[in-house]
Request: fold
Amino acid sequence: MARQVKIKDIAQMAGVSAGTVDRILHNRGNVSEASRTAVERVLAETGYRYNIHTSAVSLRKEYRIAIAIPTAVKGEYWDSVQSGIEHALDEYSDIRISREYAYYNQFDIYSCRASFESIAEGSPNAVIIGPTFVSETRSLCGELDRKGIPYAFVDSAIEGLNPALSFSCDQKACGRTVARLLHLTCPENSDFAILSSMRTGNGRSNNSLARKEGFTEYFMETCPGNAVMEAKFSVPDPEESERNVLNFIRENPSVKGIAVMNSRGYIIADILKRTGMEGISIVCFDLTSNNVRCIRNGSISAVVCQRPELQGFHAVRGLLRYLLYNQEDERKTHSMPVDIVMAENLPYYKEFLPE
Amino acid sequence: MARQVKIKDIAQMAGVSAGTVDRILHNRGNVSEASRTAVERVLAETGYRYNIHTSAVSLRKEYRIAIAIPTAVKGEYWDSVQSGIEHALDEYSDIRISREYAYYNQFDIYSCRASFESIAEGSPNAVIIGPTFVSETRSLCGELDRKGIPYAFVDSAIEGLNPALSFSCDQKACGRTVARLLHLTCPENSDFAILSSMRTGNGRSNNSLARKEGFTEYFMETCPGNAVMEAKFSVPDPEESERNVLNFIRENPSVKGIAVMNSRGYIIADILKRTGMEGISIVCFDLTSNNVRCIRNGSISAVVCQRPELQGFHAVRGLLRYLLYNQEDERKTHSMPVDIVMAENLPYYKEFLPE
DNA sequence: ATGTTTTTTGTGTACGTACACAAAAGTAAC
DNA sequence: GTTACTTTTGTGTACGTACACAAAAAACAT
Reply:
C-alpha cells in the first residue's frame, strides 16, 4: 500500500511551506498567485486527499447542524428520517457536532415559518431541510445562501435552489411502481382508484402530484380499458372518513384496487378490515408502523418506500464532508432507490445495517 | 456537546497511568488485578469509547485482508460483492489496509481448496469468505481459529463455525418472495415450475435448496391446487439447454410461471424471447447485468436480490472495527434485506450511495 | 531612505491514541 | 541483604492536520 502523500510533501514539491498549502486547501486567502498555481499543480498531479482521521483530530471547531423537518411522530415517516440523522451523528461522534431540531407541523404553514425563522436566527453551520412548503423553503434558502450556510434537502427537492446536497426519489417512478403493484394484485378487469387524504393542504402536494401522474400514466399505457378514479377521505374525522370510503366503494363495485399516495393507506385498510370488506387491494407509501401492521394482517398488499433513514444518514454525512473537506464536487442530487415491501420480504426489510 | 472522555481522564480517575489503561483496552496483558478492576470500573462508569480518528491516526500497523470468493465475473453476483469490498477499502483508505483476492471457481472444488490453502499460508490479519463449499470452508475456518485470525462470511453462513461477522439472507423467505412474485405475475390457474441449472454441482446448493423449500411452501399454503414442477437445463451447453426448456414447456402448457433459484434466469428468458414464446413469466435472483437487460426488455418479470454490494462493504467495515477496536460485541449475524426489483423500480435501484 | 501598513509565508503546538522503551516494584534464590 | 529476574507501571514520541502566531517580504506613504 503506497504511503500517503502528506501536506508536507506537497509543500516541499511546490517549494512552499506547509502553512501555505493549508491556506490553499482551505481557501483561507492571503496567498500569492504564484504559490497558488504551483501548489494546485502539485495537488492535481499527486491526487492529494485529506487524511480524514488526522483532519478530524485536529479540528478545533464544533459544528452545529440545524434540522428543519416536520414533527417526527414515532413510527411514522419523519421519524425514520430522524433516526437516520441520529445514526449518522453517532457514527461520526468523534467529530464535535451538535444538532438542533426545529420541527414544524407539516399541515400548518405558520408553524413552518416559525421553524424556519428560528433556524435562520441561530446561524448554524449547516442545515437539513424537509421542504414541504415551497415558498417558505425558498425564502429560508435565500437567507442561508446569503449567509453562506450550506443546506441539504431530504424527501424532495425544490427547483431553482442550490443545496449542497439533495435527496429525493423519482416520484413518477414511485407512482408507476404503485400502479404496477396494484395491477398485479388485482383481478383482471378491475378498475382502480386513488384515494387522497383531505387535510394535507399544501403539505407534500408536490410528491403526491407526481406520484399520481406516474400512476395514471402506467394505466393509460398498460390497460387503457380499466378506469382510474379519484376520491377523497378525511384524516381528521374518522367517522366521516369511513363514510366517504364505504360510499365510494359501494358506488364503484368495479374498483378492486386502491392506491393512497402517501402513508395513510392504513386508514383505508383498517376501515375495510373492520367492516369485513374483502377482495380489495391497497397499495400505499412508506413503511410506517401502522402500515407494517397492515401488511402483516394482510390488509395492505404492498408498500413503496424511499429509504427515509438512509436519506437522513447521508444528509448528515454529506454535509459533514462538505464542511470538513470542501467536497462539494460530489454528485449533489441523489435519487433514492424505490423499495417494494410486502408480507414476504417485510421481516427482513432494513435500510442499512446499524451497529 | 460534552467534551470527550480521554484515556488520560480514565487513567487519572482510576489512579493509574495512561499506559496501563491502554494495556487494558487492548488486552496486552502485564496488568495487575487491582489495576484492571479499578480501570474497568471507571471505563464502565464513563462509558468510554475510542476516538476512532485518533486511534486510526496513531495506528502503525498495516492490516492485510484476504478475500476468498468465487471469481468475480464482471456484471455478475460476486462482482457486486467485490465492488462493495473495494468501496469500503476506499472509504477507509486512511487506515493502512492491503487486500489480496484468492478467487476460486465455484464449480471446481479443487480450485477452492487451492485458494483456501493459499489464504491460510499467507497469515493475513482477517479473511472474508464466500463459503460455497462446506467442508473446505470448515477446514479453512478451523485453521484460522487456531491462528486467531478473524473471518467474515458473505452470501451465506455455515453452521457450527464462529465467524467474527456473517452476512446472509433468509433463503426460505427469498424463495417465498419469488413465489409470491411469480404468483402475482401469472394468470389465475396456471401451474409453476422451478428450472435448475445442471452444472452447479456442489456450488451454492445450500442456498438453492432453502429457496426451493420456501417457494414450494408458499404454493402449498396459498394455492395447493396449482402444481409446482421441477426441471433441469444445462448451462454449459446452450443448444441442449434450449431443447430442455422448449420440450418442458411444450409438454407442460399449463405452466405459466418459471422460477430460477439462482441468477441464470436470463438464460431461460433469452430462449423464450428468441423463440417468440410469450405469456410465461420468469422470476429469478440477483441483479446481474444479464438480468438487468432482461428486465428491461420485459422477458424477466422480477428479480429478488440480497444486497451483495452492501454485504461486501459491511464485511470489510465490520472486520476493521473488530481489528481496530475489538468491537466483537456487536451483532454478529446480519440478515440482509430481500429486495424486489422489476421494470418500474429498476432504474433507481442502488444498494447504497457511492461517493 | 525611512517608517508604516499590508500581504504573504513559515513555524510550532495541540488534538487523543498506540506503542516502544525506560523505570519501578515485586519475587525468588542464595 | 544482594543479585538476578519477572512483572507491572509510567513516560515520551509519532501519527498528519488545523490553526494561531511570529516572521519575512512587499507595497505604500512620507
In short: Residues 205-222 of chain B form the longest helix (18 residues). Chain B has three domains: 7-48, 58-168+307-335, 171-305.
